[in-house]
What does this fold into?
Amino acid sequence: MIASATTSPRIDLWELAQRGGMLMIPISFVSLIVVTFGLERMIALRRRKVLPPVLFDGLDRLAGQKGGLDPRRAYALCQKYPSTASRVILDMLLRLGRPHGEVEQALRDASDREAGRLYANVRWLSLAAGIAPLLGLLGTVGGMIQAFFETANLQPGANRADYLAEGIYKALVTTFAGLTVAIPAAILAHMFEGRIQRLFRELDERVARILPHLERFEGRLRANHETRDASEFPRYPIPRDNGEARRRAAEQAARAEQAQQKK
It folds into this structure.
């Protein structure tokens, strides 16, 4: 009994992979995708990269200062610590002075855009979780067809049961490999999706605490545009980072200068 136990055959995983046939190549490629994007998302979705504590600590200090939160300093702070949170807050600061509803819409748009960025590589994991078992099933079906075909064409007197068992054994290798890749991919995709949702819930809470400190600017930029009075614009400077904003500011200054010359 002891002798039979020590001489029992063992499954060699490398030999098993070789027996899987050509479809083991795309399954191996999918497994490489899972490992690559799994590690990449683990690094990218760390909390300090999405919601850097130093950014929100700085914003809290600015909000607690006498005179309230200074948009210029908040803008510089967001540029100093680039992250998902800082890009969302920058979009809010760039619309400072607009109606409250417009600012909130900008926040939603920025959040959707940043969420799309974070979800981008998670979709590859979801795709791998769906396609790996299908590749395995395809290999198994093809292997079963081959096994039954060869068994049916054996010479009379051959051991058909043993030959068929070996064919089925080889055919099931791809299904095993596909599931081995798909299960971790599905777990990782679900874990990362949950992490992204938690991070954005916290981001919403953080931004909701900043918004009341910016309400005093509502309507002031709009009033300056309506009166076309550029002299009051620097009192509440709105940070801009694009050429269109600079062009509009130059046009405003030119119109103000023309108005003064007419007087």
